[in-house]
Design goal:
heterodimer, A: mainly alpha, about 75% helix, globular, B: Sulfite Oxidase, Chain A, domain 2, seven-stranded mixed β-sheet, five-stranded mixed β-sheet, 8 helices, elongated
């Protein structure tokens, strides 16, 4: 891309569009009989969408050779964390009404929350180490290894969704299918002898 | 060597204009992609439909001691208002359960009156306001659709018997016939011939006089939304949902068993009684189980929809296979 700064702006604003529309719906009270459920579901879904998008960058880069895509991965990942935080906040603020003491019991009692919570906390170190400075401090190799956690977070997020849906599992299955494709592609690369390990560095020269 | 310059200076785009154009393009890209993202978000995650706004109805319930074994209040999780108002069988508006709410939006229910006639001493036409003057109670009933799904609905209404007592049925009256409004301008699907209009239903007089049989004027404490049979409908909780006729304009007391719409449509599939009965299957599907809206899996269908204790005595000696 000729103008990565502009592309980043486009990406940034587009990533905020769902939030703006969601807030607009809340403001107009167009959130149905169960607003809490609607907001929770929407923010949760957005978290998964951004998680999967961030996991799409590498396969897409390798398939198309469009290495510049890597420049946008951090922002996508941070948006996944951002929407995940909103999702958690919705739960803490409205479902538990800030009665923080009731949270541990609820987290344990409902396994899908246990898993969702774990997936969220896996994203915290990734968000913290997302700055250039942290990459330098950790070193590319260790940073890379740490950020493999996103696979676990993604799988946890999809499982969390799957476990809470009561009957219509089409949507969680769709997420699971896409996740399987994205992770499967990585496995294939790793264990396929004919494919040379890609030489493209994680951080191409600026 | 002189470079021949073909471009007149007047044709060179001014830098100012060039930058403006660039800015404009960027703005267009931003606006365009944001709109596309917005539309994508909207189509994937449409906001839930707005809930109907009814008027509050003053409710006076009988003392718990009086209603202990009445079946008036089922102690099961109530189906959400959202589901109750967006999953409807009301062919006068649409044959698609998800489309009734939008098709019925704006249905005008005032003025409205219900004529009670036939074999009665005091025939009378009740204005809607007069119907609302009957003491309104909350009745939380199971509703079992013949299609195999069910809900738990907190109705507001009053026992039909109270209305019938006012008109004094004569001794010849054996059945009660009900009729829905016929007005294709207000009920657009009545201009099709999917059913014989107007919709008609009927009960035996003793069924109609049973305290569980109500005329409902509301649900969840507010007046009925159009899609649920506004402004007044019948609710007979131990029979399949289609017996609970909606938007009633006429009630007649008669001597002979009256015709009923679904029985006319398919006599082999829908009987006059249509009591909920897990042992008598519909010719095209089993009635042994049902899907409770909002629940996972299926639950067992109960005899008389769980109201056997209250109503089984009405059918003693009647072959329920024959009189399905």
């Amino acid at each position: 891309m000729k103008d990565p700064r502009f592309t980043k702006l486009v990406l940034f604003l587009n990533s905020l569009v769902p939030l703006v529309l969601l807030l607009w719906d809340v403001y107009r009270k167009r959130v149905g009989a169960n607003p809490l459920e609607f907001v929770t579901r929407t923010t949760g879904m957005l978290t998964l969408v951004f998680l999967l998008l961030s996991l799409t960058v590498t396969p897409l880069r390798k398939v198309t050779g469009a290495n510049w895509l890597i420049k946008f991965r951090r922002m996508i990942g941070l948006f996944a964390f951002f929407y995940g935080s909103l999702h958690l906040l919705t739960y803490v603020a409205f479902d538990r009404l800030f009665h923080l003491t009731t949270i541990p019991g609820d987290v344990i009692k409902r396994p899908f929350i246990t898993i969702g919570m774990a997936a969220f906390f896996l994203m915290v170190p990734l968000a913290i180490t997302s700055t250039n400075k942290m990459v330098k401090r950790l070193g590319g190799k260790r940073w890379n290894r740490l950020h493999k956690l996103v696979y676990v977070a993604g799988a946890g997020g999809v499982l969390h969704f799957w476990m809470l849906v009561k009957s219509d599992t089409r949507l969680p299955l769709t997420f699971a299918f896409i996740l399987a494709l994205l992770l499967g592609y990585r496995l294939l690369l790793k264990y396929s002898p004919t494919t040379p390990q890609p030489g493209a560095s994680l951080f191409p020269p600026r | 060597m002189a470079i021949k310059n073909d471009i007149k200076s007047s044709e060179i785009t001014d830098k100012h204009v060039y930058l403006n154009r660039r800015l404009f393009m960027k703005g267009a890209v931003l606006a365009g992609t944001a709109t596309a993202t917005g539309l994508l978000y909207r189509s994937l995650n449409p906001p839930p439909p707005a809930l109907p706004k009814g008027e509050k109805i003053a409710i006076t319930n009988g003392a718990p001691s009086e209603t202990a074994n009445s079946g008036f209040i089922v102690n099961e999780k109530r189906t959400s208002l959202e589901d109750i108002t967006n999953y409807n069988n009301f062919y006068e508006f649409s044959t698609s359960k998800g489309s009734v709410a939008s098709a019925a939006k704006g249905f005008i229910t005032r003025p409205w009156s219900v004529a009670v006639t036939g074999l009665v001493n005091k025939p009378k036409t009740f204005d809607l306001d007069e119907l609302l003057k009957f003491q309104q109670e909350e009745r939380v009933y199971r509703l079992r659709c013949v299609e195999g799904w069910s809900m738990v609905i907190p109705w507001v209404g009053f026992s039909l018997s109270k209305l019938l007592e006012k008109v004094e049925p004569t001794s010849q009256a054996k059945y009660v016939a009900f009729e829905t409004l016929f007005d294709p301008r207000r009920m657009p699907n009545q201009s099709t011939s999917v059913l014989d209009w107007p919709y008609v239903e009927g009960l035996r007089l003793d069924e109609a006089m049973h305290p569980l049989t109500i005329l409902a004027t509301g649900l969840y404490g507010e007046t009925l939304p159009p899609q649920d049979g506004a402004p007044v409908r019948l609710v007979v909780p131990w029979k399949y949902g289609f017996k609970s006729i909606k938007s009633i304009v006429k009630i007649s007391l008669v001597a002979e068993q009256p015709p009923t719409t679904w029985n006319i449509q398919a006599p082999g599939e829908y009987g006059f009684y249509s009591n909920v009965n897990p042992e008598v299957d519909h010719p095209r599907w089993s009635q042994a189980t049902e899907r409770r809206i909002g629940e996972y899996g299926r639950r067992k269908t109960l005899m008389f929809n769980g109201y056997g204790e209250q109503v089984a005595n009405l059918y003693q000696g009647l072959d329920l296979r024959k009189y399905f």
